[in-house]
Structures are given as structure tokens and as C-alpha cells.
């Protein structure tokens, strides 16, 4: 499917953006130096690798296999979506995987940078935080990394945010790890430990998916039970600590 068709499916009919007479839904940005990638499937642009939306702003990740990853920002006015900017890592590199995962709470945007084992970071991964300024611009607010910085850990494969806590999965570290980070008053992020796991098993890939809603947290472990998969369910105590409540196994034999 072409990029234009993909954006039509996601965001509605293509409309004239007024940017050099081109449609906003046809090209991710009016000034990108890599527009030719849409005509070169071998480059694996991967536009739409991750998406997130908050209000009238949508974010689309383009991991760009052989080039630095990019997150494209779209603004909706009425029924019209127009490109308003792009984000990249502070030091973009080829095959850096920036934009592989996205999540936002409206004021903070977290962008997973998950490269391959042959990439510039050897699969360690990182999460870039951006904060929304009063003028609507998204500005860097730090980079979240695992304390171990283990190669091939795939830190950032899954990310979630709720309140002042961010959750980042590293499914290829040990049997899988979910790191916690707490947002400070100045908007920066600091490590806040790991999610506790009991009855972990080799190959679980715990942290491959994360969902949080209030005092409930669910973490996917698709490698559990010879890849049949499982979900670890958590509840938050009155003191704010997460405790494992159950392991939900696949019903398949």
C-alpha cells in the first residue's frame, strides 16, 4: 500500500495542505530529504511502524531501515490533517530504529528507539522523551535507558505512560524486564526500579507489550509456555507499589 493510501486509511481523505501544492497525506513532510524512499521499496521506509494520537495531533513513526528513524507530526483542523513537523533522535544514525514505538499522554511523548542487533546501538535500545511547550512545539526532555545497557535487550519494544510513571519493556534482557521511570518536577525522568516478577521462565519475553489503566497493569510475555504466551496482571497498592496478581495463560493447548 502506498504511503498516501495508508494515511487516507488512518486519517481520512487526502486534502491540499498548501505546502508547495502537495497533499499533506501524500508526503510525511514538505521538506524531507528522503521523499524518494516512497518509490524505493527496498529501502524499507516503514512509515506507520508506530502511531499515537492525542486530541488533534497524530504521530507516525517511520523507522527507515537504512536511514535514521523519524516521527512525523500531523495536526487536524476540522477534517483536514496537515504536516506540522518531524522529530528525530538528538544524534540520528542510520538504522537507529527511532520511531519504532510511540506513546503519549498529551503533554509528554515517548519515542522508542529500537535498532537491530547489527544497528548502531547493537540492539540495546532507548526511549526519547519530548515535552509539549506552551506554543505546541515538542522539545526534547531526556533519554531513558536501561541500567544494564545490555546488547540485544531491545529496550523500548513496548512503552506506556500514566501520570508521572513511564514503563519500558526490554523483553530480550534476561527473561524480560519492565523498567520504571518517574517524571520529576522539571520534566526530566529518573529511574524508579523494575517491575517485580515472580515465577519467571526462560524465554518469556516479558515486557513485549504493556498496558496501564489506573491501578491496573498488564504485561505481555508471548514466549511463555513454548510461545503459547501469557499476560502478567498487576495491581497497585495504597502505597503506590505494583504487586503481581496473576498470570493469565493462553487457552490453547
What would your notes on this structure say?
It is built from 2 helices and 18 strands. The protein is mainly beta and 253 residues long. The N terminus is likely disordered.
At a glance:
The chain is mostly beta strands. It has helices at residues 3-11, 224-227; strands spanning 16-19, 22-23, 47-54, 57-62, 70-77, 80-87, 98-104, 108-113, 126-132, 138-144, 158-162, 165-170, 177-183, 189-194, 209-213, 216-221, 230-236, 242-249.
Cα-atom radius of gyration: 19 Å
Label the structural class. mainly beta
- Low-confidence sequence ranges: 1-42
Shape designation: globular
Residue fraction in strands: 35-45%
Mean pLDDT: 82
Range of helix content: under 10%
Main traits of this protein?
18 strands; 2 helices; four-stranded antiparallel β-sheet; 253 residues; mainly beta; globular; single chain; disordered N terminus; 5% helix
Describe how the helices and strands are arranged.
Elements: H1 3-11, E1 16-19, E2 22-23, E3 47-54, E4 57-62, E5 70-77, E6 80-87, E7 98-104, E8 108-113, E9 126-132, E10 138-144, E11 158-162, E12 165-170, E13 177-183, E14 189-194, E15 209-213, E16 216-221, H2 224-227, E17 230-236, E18 242-249
Antiparallel strand pairs: 1-2, 3-4, 4-5, 5-6, 7-8, 8-9, 9-10, 11-12, 12-13, 13-14, 15-16, 16-17, 17-18
Amino acid at each position: 500500500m502506498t504511503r498516501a493510501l495508508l494515511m487516507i486509511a488512518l486519517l481520512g481523505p487526502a486534502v491540499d495542505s498548501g505546502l508547495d501544492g502537495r497533499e499533506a497525506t501524500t508526503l510525511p513532510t514538505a521538506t524531507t530529504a528522503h521523499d524518494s524512499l516512497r518509490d524505493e521499496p527496498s529501502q524499507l521506509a516503514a512509515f506507520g511502524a508506530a502511531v499515537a494520537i492525542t486530541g488533534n495531533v497524530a504521530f507516525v513513526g517511520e523507522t527507515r531501515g537504512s536511514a535514521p528513524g523519524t516521527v512525523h507530526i500531523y495536526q487536524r483542523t476540522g477534517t483536514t490533517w496537515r504536516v506540522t513537523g518531524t522529530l528525530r533522535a538528538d544524534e540520528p544514525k542510520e538504522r537507529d530504529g527511532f520511531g519504532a514505538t510511540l506513546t503519549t499522554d498529551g503533554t509528554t511523548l515517548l519515542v522508542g528507539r529500537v535498532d537491530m542487533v547489527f544497528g548502531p546501538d547493537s540492539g540495546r535500545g532507548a526511549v526519547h522523551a519530548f515535552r509539549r511547550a506552551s506554543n505546541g512545539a515538542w522539545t526534547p526532555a531526556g533519554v531513558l535507558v536501561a541500567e544494564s545497557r545490555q546488547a540485544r535487550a531491545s529496550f523500548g519494544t513496548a512503552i506506556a505512560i500514566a501520570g508521572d510513571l513511564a514503563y519500558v519493556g526490554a523483553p530480550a534482557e534476561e527473561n524480560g524486564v519492565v523498567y520504571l521511570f518517574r517524571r520529576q518536577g522539571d520534566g526530566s525522568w529518573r529511574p524508579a526500579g523494575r517491575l517485580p516478577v515472580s515465577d519467571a521462565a526462560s524465554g518469556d519475553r516479558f515486557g513485549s507489550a504493556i498496558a496501564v489503566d489506573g491501578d491496573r497493569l498488564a504485561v505481555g510475555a508471548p514466549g511463555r509456555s513454548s510461545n503459547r504466551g501469557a499476560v502478567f496482571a498487576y495491581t497497585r497498592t495504597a502505597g503506590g507499589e505494583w504487586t503481581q496478581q496473576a498470570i493469565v495463560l493462553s487457552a490453547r493447548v
